[in-house]
Amino acid sequence: MLNDNSHSHLPPYIIVTHTGLSEESSFLDIGSGTGKPNVHIAQKFGVKHSVGIEIEKIRYLLSQNNHKVLLQQTLEEGTSINVRNCFFLHGDILQATHLNPFSHIYMFDVGFPTETLHELAIIFNNSISQYLISYNSGLDSVGFNVELIHSLPTFMHGSGERHTCYFYKRTVLDSNIEVDTEPDTVFKEALRVINSGENETLRFVTNKIQEWHDRPKTRSGRGKEMRHRE
Ligand SMILES: C[S@@+](CC[C@H](N)C(=O)[O-])C[C@H]1O[C@@H](n2cnc3c(N)ncnc32)[C@H](O)[C@@H]1O
User: Fold this and answer.
1) Residue 32 Cβ contacting ligand 1 at under 6 Å
2) Does any ligand 1 atom lie closer than 6 A to the CB of residue 53?
3) Could you tell me if the CB of 107 is within 6 A of ligand 1?
């Protein structure tokens, strides 16, 4: 279940201890998968925004589906699962020029290629984001304007995977960065929907899932179906 912490890499309270995450923070998960970190952060801390961006369509759709179920529980059954400030985007983070307005950036980046990290460093350095949580050591050496403030071994109960989580703090804010700059185009829709409330978020998420179900099926998909029936 998505609202069960047992499979997440990092207990959310650790993020608070080392980065001062609060209700005023905006949290971005780069490569949000099925959405667990975003949901946990939103539920536990009621942050201003908890946005995930995921390049892989099926994982993104799973995060939308999980979000829909939790929103429905909140709205229809009156449970106190707080996922109202969550939003999941389908896209490539490398299309962003900066990461504003997010104060806290999280990435489970164990498999990210070095070139991707170099590109992310440029995008991060163009932003006002104060904290970066990563599973790679030495991000300063691939160009991020950060210093390491803490590291912590992590263990995933489900798979038994062990990693080390690294907490970084920004060192330099480029003088040409405007602190109150507009959100990057990549995030505008997410922030608009979050700000319009949970009913609008549920309507938006439901439409996205429906669009996927109604999509024109590809020729190859139809072919497979035909072969299956024979
Ligand atoms: C290991 S998963 C992490 C999932 C989730 N954040 C978690 O911690 O449970 C990393 C994800 O990053 C996604 N990813 C890789 N490159 C990306 C990019 N350029 N833009 C957005 N997502 C990306 C992958 O598709 C994958 O789902």
Assistant:
1) yes
2) yes
3) no
Residue with CA closest to ligand 1 atom 1 = 108
Partners of residue 105 on adjacent β-strands? 28, 132
Q: Give the range among 22-31, 35-44, 76-85 with minimum mean pLDDT.
A: 76-85
The rounded Cα 42 to chain-centroid distance in angstroms is 11
Q: Does 54 contact ligand 1 (Cβ within 6 A)?
A: yes
Q: Which domains does the chain have, with CATH numbers?
A: 5-229 (3.40.50.150)
Tell me: the pLDDT tens digits for 190-224?
A: 999 999 998 999 999 999 999 999 988 876 655 44
Q: Which two tokens stand for residue 25?
A: 């923070």
Position 179 scores a pLDDT of 61
Model-level pTM?
Answer: 0.90
Which residues, other chains included, contact 8 with Cβ-Cβ below 8 Å and sequence gap of 6+? 36, 37, 40, 156
